[in-house]
Structure formats: structure tokens, C-alpha cells
Amino acid sequence: MTFKMVLIGIMGLFLLIPLALIKDVIRERSANAETARTEIGQTWASAQTVTGPVLNIPGTQVIDKDGNFITTTMHILPDELRVNGVLEPEIRYRGIYETVVYESEIEISGSFTIAGFEQLNDYTWEWDKAYISLGVSDNKGISNKAELSIGGRVISAIPGAGQSDLFDRGVSFPYSIDSSKLAESGGEFTLELHLRGSSSIAFSPVGQTTKVALSSKWNAPKFTGNFLPAERNVTNEGFTASWVVTHLNRSFPQVWKGKHYSPADDAFGVDLILEADHYTKAERSAKYGLLFIALTFLVLIIIELRFSRRIHIFYYLLVALALIMFFSLLTALSEHVGFNPAYLISAVATIGLLTFFFRSLLEKGWMTLLISGLLTGLYVFIFFLLAMKDYAFLAGNIGLFVLLAALMIISARYRLFRS
To answer: 202, 199, 237, 236: which is closest to 92 by C-alpha?
Structure first.
């Protein structure tokens, strides 16, 4: 029996190879799903980062007596920036793979103060060529015309950010300013933006005070970026969140020239996540594969020792392969029917197969019920571990400790091993 247990232990170690192969298959399928999500994003619109609006004024400076000059752009950020957005999420499919996309209605408002920057850095500023730019990381997502209202004017957007100092993509609004009336220019502005995207949306805190409020029916948000919401509320019906960021919290000033800062580096927002998708759960469940095999082997060994029933090592191998097959079957089914139904179907099929096998092998109904009950308890236990979030690691350790204690008590009580 000792020699047989050594062989079973060696066989258990070799069974880690097919378990590892199944994990590789799960990761490969998960990578395929991520590729499909990227393709959907490329055709619909990718994750969006909105930066601005920012007022830009081209400028020149003569550097020598020959009239040579250099050019730059002055960037003036809003005194106050208010953003109110509503996200309408939707699940899109590419084959059997899914991802979340959204359409949004975004209202942007605030104010500019222009007076006081006329002589910044001794440049000659071309106020008549000024323009306001809005950074949008993927222009495909702009699903309607954008119009900016400022100073009694309504300005339609034109493609392109105008310069690459702050962002590479976006739209701009020509905003010619009379240099003799700088004190009267600027003021309040409003902008409505219909924006599509996938997976996430973020905003750069370009206002001296930036206030952002978002709401959506999506009930699995993940708040990301440099700043967390000041207030948030997540329910089964969706979420609401609001941020307040001042110029003292960010890493760039209110006015500068050239390409010295990137406001998008301080962006914050929300990810619309597919919470614990079936590939993640399938891979997590496969990590418990050795536990299934080891406990089933221990029960068979106890039956051999306690009741003098000899079980050939080949049958141990067949049992282990059936237990391993569960994880492959779970992954394949979950792609089509979802994780929970796939787990139920795979568990019932595996337990049913092993129950029939043990009933033919052991020829005693109570032994078969013992092993089937153990497997049922294990599958239920692992399912609850996968459903848990914060307490999964704690519950798993408590469960393993209880199982180890039970095995120690049984082996000591019946004196299964004698020196």
C-alpha cells in the first residue's frame, strides 16, 4: 500500500501537466475574446478620453537682428469646467465573444478669462487666429455635429485639434479675438457632445475647478485614473458618481506655451467592466483541480484501507482524467450559455459519470454515495468561492483547514496507518 501511495502521488504530479494545458487553453480563449473586444472598439469607437475645451493663441518671437523668429502656441485653460454625462451601455458581440460599448450625452460648460495674458513670455500673439480645441481620443465616436456657444457666438466644430501640444486627436472651433477687446472676450461657454466609445470614458481636469458628474444604468463600474469620485452610488439599477478637482490637485498650470504638459496624464473616469467574466472564473476554478484529485484519491485510499477493497491504480487515473475534463467542459460550455449554467451542467455530468463508474467498480451503494456526496460538496464549495469577492481567500483557507482536520480525525480514529 505504501508503494501504491507513492505511485499515486507521482501520478498526481504528472496530472498537473493536463491541468496546466487546460489553463493555457483558457488563457488563449480569453486572449481571443480580448482581440474581439479590440476589433469591436476599432469599428465602433475605442475607450474615450475627453480633454478641454482649451483656448489656443498662436504666437511668434523674433530671436535675432536678421528677422529670424520662432513660433509657439499659448494654451489658456478654463477658470471653471462643469461636465454632466449620461452613459447608455450596450453589449455587442463578435462571434461568441462580447464586450460593452456605450453612447453618451455630455454637456460641457464653463468660462474663460483672457485678459492679463497679452504679453506672456514677450511673444507677439495673433489673437485673430485664436481657436478653442477639444481633445477626443477617438474621433469616430463623435456621432453628431458639435457646436460651441461662447460670447454670444455659436461656432461649429472643424476636424483636427489644431496642434499636437496637448493632444493628437479632437476637434477645434475658430474663435477670432479682437486684441483691443480682450477684456470683453471669453466668458461663459457651453458645448453639447454626443460621444460613442467602448469599455471606459475619462476626463482631464483642465478647469481651475473641474466638476464632473456621470450616471449610467451599468451596475459594474470601476472608477479609475488619478482621482476617485467625491461621491458615488452603485446599485443593481446603475451608478452615479461625481468628482471635484482643483488646479492645486493636478500637475500642470493654468496657462503655458508650447508642449510642456499633457493634461490627459491626470485624467479620471470610469470603466464599464464585464464583472468576473467566464474565462476568469474558469481559470480560477481550474486552480482547484489538484484539490479535487487529491481529496478523491484520499477517499479511495481510505476505502481500500478500511474495508480491504483493492482498487487498481489504472482506475485512479481514469477518475483523475474525468475530474480534469470537467474544467475543459466548463470553459467550452460557458462560452455559449454563461458561466453559472455551464458550471451546473459540467458538475452534474461529471458527478453522474463518476457515480456510475464507482457503482460498477465498488458494488456497494453507500460507498458510491459517500464519494458522490464528497464531489457534490466540493463543487458547491468551489462555486461559492468563485462567487465571493473580498472573502474568497479567507473562506477558501477555512474550508481547506476543516477538510484537513476531518481527514486527520478519520485517519486517527480508525488507525488507518500502522507503523
So the answer is: 199
